[in-house]
Design a protein that fits this description.
Elements lengths: L1 H23 L1 H15 L4 H5 L8 H7 L5 H12 L13 E5 L8 E5 L1 H22 L9 E4 L4 E3 L7 E3 L1 H7 L3 H4 L2 E2 L2 H4 L4 H12 L4 E5 L2 H15 L4 H4 L5 E4 L5 H10 L5 E8 L2 E5 L8 E3 L5 E7 L11 E2 L8 E8 L6 E12 L2 E8 L13 H15 L3 E10 L6 E9 L6 H15 L1 H7 L9 E4 L4 H8 L17 H9 L2
Parallel strand pairs: 1-5, 3-6, 3-7, 7-8, 8-9, 18-19
Antiparallel strand pairs: 1-2, 4-5, 9-10, 10-11, 11-16, 12-13, 12-14, 14-15, 15-16, 17-18
Helix pairs in contact: 1-6, 10-11, 11-13, 14-15, 15-16
C-alpha cells in the first residue's frame, strides 16, 4: 500500500505541473504535439504519400492531409493487420482494438501503438487516480482490490503475429505488476471470451475479496452486481464490500443509472467519469461537483473540430482548438500517436468552458434521429426519459428508437422499444408525457410535431424481460465496451428487436 501512495504522490505532483500548462499555454501544448506527430511519422507510407517532410504549420497540415473516416484508412489498416509495419505509424504495431461501441455487424480495428498505450491510456489511468486522490485525500482505495469489467482478445485472422480485441483486454494484459497486484479478477479470468462464464468466475472471486473500486460500462456493471447479490443473498453491495468507495465509468451517460447505483451502495460512494475510447483517452472529470470533463491535451492526441450543424457537408470546415466556442456542438477530429490522421471519430461534444477546456459528451454523429429534420440527439432522449421516469416512478433499463414512415406524404413518427424494470400501468400516459418532454427539450422536434404536420405521436413498445440482453448475446456482443445503439436513422436494429420481442 505504501508503494501506491508514493507512486500516486509523484503522479499528482507531475500532473499539477502539466495542468498548469493546460491552463496557461493550451495551444502551445497542442502545437508542439502536432509537430511531434508529423515529424515522427514522416517516413511512414502515409507520411510519404502526403509529404509530411514539407508540412511546417497548421495551414500545411490542414490542407495537405485530408479528413478521414475508418473506411478511408481501412486499406492501410488491413496491411497492418497482415503484419506490415511503418504504414500509418513508425513504431511496431502488434495490437488492434476491435471497436465495439454500439452493437453493429461491422467491426473497426483501431491500431494500438506502444506510445498510445503508455502516453495515452496508461497516462489517463494514472491521471484519473491522481485526480481522485486530490479530490478525496482522506480516502484510500488502495487498501482493497479494483475490479475491471473488460473484454477479451484473440489472434488476428490475418496474421499470427497480431492480436485484436477489446481495448480493455489489451490494456489489462500489459499492465505493470504493481497495478496487476491490485486488480481483480485474475488475468486468465479477465481475458476469457465467454462473457457469461467469465461473469460467473469473476463473481466467485470477487465475493471473497475486499473490493474498494470498480470500473466498467454501467449497463454491464449492473449485470455483474446482480450476480454478486444473487450469489451472496445480500441486499446491497456494501454488505458484500463494506470498504467500497469508488466507481469509475464512461462511454455512456451515467445519469439514467445513478439511482440504481445509489441503491446498490446505500452508504454512498464516489464517482468519476472519463472519456476513454478505442481511439484514445480524451477527458477526465476533475471536479466531482460538475459533470463536465477536462480535455487532456498531452495524451498524444491533436484535436480539431467540425461544427455539428456542418458535419453532413461533403467538405465541412474544420476549426482548431483555439477557435471553438462555448455552448456549440462539435464533431471531434483527432490525430493520434497510433496513426489515425485527421480521423472523424464520430463522437460529439459541447464545450462548457474554454479556459481551461472542459466539455460534455453529447452523442455520436451516426446515432441521432434526423429523418424529418427533428435533430433529436441522445442527450435529449435521455433527459426526457429521466424526467418522465422520475415523475411516474419508473425505471427504463434499455431502449432504442428509429424513424417510421406512416404515409406517402413524407410524414412519420419515432418508434421506440423500452425495457422497464417494472412495466408502466398506463403506457399511454407515459407516451404523452415522454412526447411532451421531448418537445420541451428540443425545439426542432417540437416544430416537427406541431399539429402532427411532419411528425406524429411516437409509437412505444414494451420490451419483454431481458430482450436487449438476448439480442446482444445473439450477436456475440456481451460485456466489454459493447453498448445498445440508442438512436438510429435506419430501422435495422429495431426490426431485429421487434422480431425477437414477445
Amino acid at each position: 500500500m505504501k508503494i501506491y501512495n508514493s507512486i500516486v504522490s509523484l503522479i499528482l505532483k507531475k500532473r499539477n505541473q502539466r495542468i498548469k500548462l493546460f491552463i496557461d499555454q493550451p495551444h502551445k501544448v497542442q502545437e508542439k504535439l502536432r509537430h511531434y506527430l508529423i515529424n515522427k511519422a514522416k517516413n511512414t507510407e502515409f507520411g510519404k504519400t502526403y509529404d509530411f517532410k514539407s508540412i511546417n504549420n497548421l495551414k500545411d497540415f490542414s490542407e495537405r492531409i485530408p479528413l478521414s473516416t475508418y473506411e478511408d484508412l481501412e486499406h492501410y489498416i488491413v496491411k497492418m493487420r497482415a503484419g506490415n509495419q511503418n504504414i500509418l505509424w513508425p513504431s511496431r504495431i502488434k495490437w488492434f482494438a476491435k471497436s465495439s461501441g454500439t452493437t453493429g455487424n461491422k467491426s473497426k480495428y483501431i491500431p494500438v501503438s506502444k506510445e498510445s498505450i503508455v502516453d495515452c491510456h496508461y497516462k489517463g489511468g494514472k491521471d484519473l487516480l491522481a485526480i481522485y486522490c486530490s479530490n478525496f485525500p482522506i480516502k484510500n482505495i488502495f487498501s482493497g482490490k479494483s475490479v475491471m469489467l473488460g473484454g477479451s482478445h484473440s489472434i488476428s485472422k490475418l496474421s499470427s503475429k497480431m492480436k485484436e480485441g477489446d481495448l480493455s483486454a489489451i490494456i489489462m494484459e500489459q499492465l505493470p505488476f504493481w497495478v496487476r497486484m491490485q486488480q481483480s479478477p485474475k488475468l486468465t479470468t479477465a481475458l476469457m471470451d465467454d462473457w457469461e462464464e467469465k461473469i460467473e468466475l469473476m463473481t466467485e472471486q470477487a465475493i471473497h475479496q475486499n473490493v474498494s473500486s470498480l470500473s466498467g460500462v454501467p449497463s454491464w456493471t449492473l449485470v455483474f452486481a446482480k450476480k454478486i447479490l444473487e450469489k451472496t443473498g445480500k441486499k446491497n453491495l456494501h454488505e458484500v464490500w463494506p470498504n467500497f468507495e469508488l466507481y469509475m465509468h464512461g462511454g455512456i451517460n451515467f445519469e439514467p443509472y445513478r439511482k440504481k447505483f445509489e441503491e446498490l451502495f446505500p452508504k454512498g460512494i464516489n464517482y468519476i467519469e472519463s472519456f476513454n475510447a478505442s481511439e484514445g483517452y480524451f477527458g477526465i472529470q476533475d471536479n466531482p461537483n460538475k459533470n463536465d470533463l477536462l480535455l487532456m491535451l498531452d495524451f498524444g492526441i491533436y484535436y480539431e473540430f467540425i461544427l455539428l450543424k456542418n458535419a453532413h457537408k461533403n467538405k465541412p470546415s474544420v476549426v482548431s482548438l483555439s477557435e471553438v466556442k462555448q455552448g456549440e456542438d462539435y464533431e471531434m477530429v483527432i490525430t493520434t500517436n497510433a496513426g489515425l490522421w485527421r480521423y472523424r471519430i464520430g463522437d460529439t461534444v459541447r464545450f462548457t468552458k474554454v479556459n481551461p477546456y472542459r466539455f460534455v459528451i453529447t452523442g455520436r454523429t451516426k446515432h441521432h434521429l434526423n429523418v424529418f429534420g427533428e435533430e433529436l440527439m441522445i442527450h435529449n432522449a435521455e433527459k426526457a426519459l429521466q424526467k418522465v421516469c422520475t415523475d411516474l416512478h419508473l425505471d427504463v433499463l434499455e431502449y432504442t428508437a428509429a424513424p417510421k414512415f406512416t404515409g406517402t406524404n413524407g410524414k412519420g413518427c419515432h418508434e421506440w422499444i423500452l425495457e422497464f424494470k417494472k412495466d408502466p400501468k398506463d403506457l399511454q400516459k407515459f407516451r404523452y408525457s415522454f412526447d411532451q418532454a421531448l418537445k420541451n427539450l428540443n425545439s426542432d422536434y417540437e416544430a416537427k410535431r406541431y399539429k402532427n404536420m411532419v411528425l406524429e405521436m411516437p409509437i412505444l413498445h414494451i420490451a419483454s424481460k431481458n430482450l436487449f440482453f438476448k439480442w446482444m448475446k445473439n450477436k456475440g456482443k456481451l460485456g466489454g465496451q459493447n453498448k445498445v445503439p440508442r438512436l438510429s436513422n435506419e430501422r435495422k436494429f429495431i426490426e431485429e428487436l421487434l422480431k425477437l420481442n414477445h
